[in-house]
Amino acid sequence: MNYGELFHVTLPETALDLAALLVLLVDLAFLRKAALQVRLSSAAVIGVIGCLAAMWAVGMQTSAGFSVDGLLVLANGGVTAVAQMGVLVLTAVTLLLLIDSSFTKHPGEFVAVVLMAASGGLVISAARDLLVIFIGLELLSIGLYILTAFGKTSAKSAEAALKYYLFGGMSAAFLLFGFSYFYGLTGSTNLYEIQSSIANSGSSPLLIVAWVLVVAGLGFKVAAVPFHLWAPDTYEGAPAPAAAFIASVSKIASFTLLLTFSFQWLQVSNEYLSGARPAVEHYIVSAYQSWQHLALVLLIAAVASMIVGNLAALAQTSVRRLLAYSAIAHAGYILLGIAIYSTYSGQSDVMSFWGNAFNAGVISQNAVLYYVLTYGLTTIGAFGVIGVVERTTGSDKLDAFLGLHKRNPVLAAVLLILFLSLAGIPPLVGFWAKFNLFAAVLAVGGGVWPFALVALAVAMSAVSLYYYLQVLKRAYVMPAVDDTPIHVHPVTMLVLMAIAAAVVLAGCLPSVLQGWIASF
C-alpha cells in the first residue's frame, strides 16, 4: 500500500480530525474558565474552519476514479465528491446553530465528536470495501450515540441515547453478518470483486439472505420501516443541534452507501464489455438478477416507509416526533428512487437493457443526491427554529408555536418556508426534489408499477401537507397564549435566514444545484 496515496485520499478526514483535536486543545487548555458563550462560539468557529479546510481538500481531489487498493476512491460518477461536500456543508451549518445553545457545559467535546462523526460520513462516502464501510459506519454511529446523550440534565436524552445505542448495535450485527455472507460467497471484501464474482456464479439463496441482512442494517441508518423505531425517541430526546446532525449528515452518508451498493451492481467492467457478446450478455443478466434481490427489498421498504411515516405523523403533538415520522416518509421517497430502475426487466435485447438500466441509474442517482442534499439543509433549518422555540417556551409541542408570527415574524417566516418546502410546495426546492425523483421513477418505464408507485408517493405527499399545516396554523392563525417576543441570537437568525433564502433560491433556480451535481 502506498501511504502517500492513502494520505491524499483521506486528506478531508484528516482535516476534520485535526480540527477536532484543536477544538479540544483550545477549549480545555485556554478557555476552561471562560464564559460558556465564548467557549461555544470558539469551538463552533474552529469546527467550521475545519469543515472549510476539508471542503478545500475535497475540491483538490480531481483524479476521478482513483483508488487506494480498492479501499477508498476520490470520485465515482460524482457520488463521492457530492456526498462529501454535502456532509461538510451541513456539518458547518449545524455547528453555527450551536452558538446559541445551552444544553451542555462541554462545547469542545461536543464539537469534537461532531467533527469525528462527520469524518466517518466522509469515509462511508468514499469506501469501496466492506471492512472500510463498516469502520466508517461505526465511527459515524458511535459519534451519534454520544451526541444524543449530550443533554445530561434531560431524562429524555438519556433514554433516547440508550434506545438508539441498542437498536444501533443490533443493526450493526445484521450488517456485519450480511457482509460475512458476501465474503463467504466470493472470498473478497471489495465491492467490485464481489460484483464480478456473483455475476459470474449467478444468484443463490444465500445471496438473498445476505441482501436482506444488509438492507436491515442500512435500513436502520436511514430510518426506513420496519427499522425506524429508534427515530421518534431520538429526534425528540437529543439536543436540537444533535438531532439536526442526525437528521441530515447521517442521512447523506447512509443513502450514499445505498447508492454505492445499488449503482455499483449496474456497472460492467471493461474486460466484459470488450469481450465476446455471449460472455457480456451472460454477465449482464447475472449481475442484474443478483441486484434485483436488493431492489425488491428496497421497494418494499420504500412503500412501507411512505405509508407508515406519513400516517403516524398525523397523530403527533410533538413537532420533533412529527419531523421524525416525516423523515421516515422522506426515506421512503428516496428509497423509491434508488430501487426503481430494476423495472427494466422487460427488455428483449440484453445490451439495450443494460444501456437503458445504466442511464436510468445515472438519472436516479442524481435525483437522489439532489433530494438528500436539499432535505438535509431544510431539516437543519427546521430543527434550528424548533431549538429557538424550545429555549423560550421549554416545549416542542404544537401549542408552543402559537402566535409565533407575532412573537417573532422573521422566525415564523423561516418556519413557513422550510415546512412548505418539506411538503413539496412550489416554487421551493422541496418541490423540485420530489419532482426530479418522481420523474426519474416514471422515466424507467416497465409497465404500470412506476406510475402506481409515483401516484402513492404523491398521495402521501398530500397527507404530509396536512400535518405541516398543523404547525403553521398555530404559528399564523391561532391566537397566542403568550405575546412575549422571542429573541434570537444574531448568528442563529442569520443562519436560519440564509437557509430559508437558499431554499427559495434553489427552488427558483433548480438547474444550478442540478448542474453542480451533474458536473462531477
List the SSEs and their pairings.
Blueprint lengths: L2 H7 L1 H20 L5 H25 L6 E2 L3 E2 L5 H19 L9 H20 L3 H19 L6 H32 L4 H11 L3 H18 L7 H8 L2 H25 L5 H4 L3 H37 L5 H21 L10 H44 L10 H4 L1 H15 L5 H15 L5 H28 L13 H19 L1 H9 L2
Antiparallel strand pairs: 1-2
Helix pairs in contact: 2-3, 2-5, 3-4, 3-5, 4-5, 4-11, 4-15, 5-6, 5-11, 6-7, 6-11, 7-8, 7-9, 7-10, 8-13, 9-13, 10-11, 10-14, 11-14, 11-15, 13-14, 13-19, 14-15, 14-18, 14-19, 15-17, 15-18, 15-20, 15-21, 17-19, 17-20, 18-19, 18-20, 20-21
Name a few traits of the molecule:
520 residues, mainly alpha, two-stranded antiparallel ribbon, 1% strand, globular
Please give a structural write-up.
The chain is mainly alpha-helical. The protein has one domain. It contains 21 helices and two strands. Strands 1-2 form a two-stranded antiparallel sheet. Strand 1 and strand 2 form a beta hairpin. Helix 7 packs antiparallel against helix 9. The longest helix has 44 residues. It is globular and about 70 Å long.
Helices and strands, in N-to-C order?
Answer: HHHEEHHHHHHHHHHHHHHHHHH
Query: Whole-Å distance between the termini?
Result: 27 Å
Question: What shape does the CA trace take?
Answer: globular
**Number of separate structural domains:** 1
Number of helices: 21
- The average pLDDT is 84
The value of Rg in angstroms is: 22 Å
Supply the helix-strand structural class: mainly alpha
Reported for the largest beta sheet, the result is:
2 strands, antiparallel
Summarize the amount of helix as a percent range: over 70%
Side-by-side strand order of the widest sheet: 1-2
Would you report the number of β strands? 2
> pLDDT under 50 segments (min length 5)?
268-277, 344-350
Strand content: under 5%
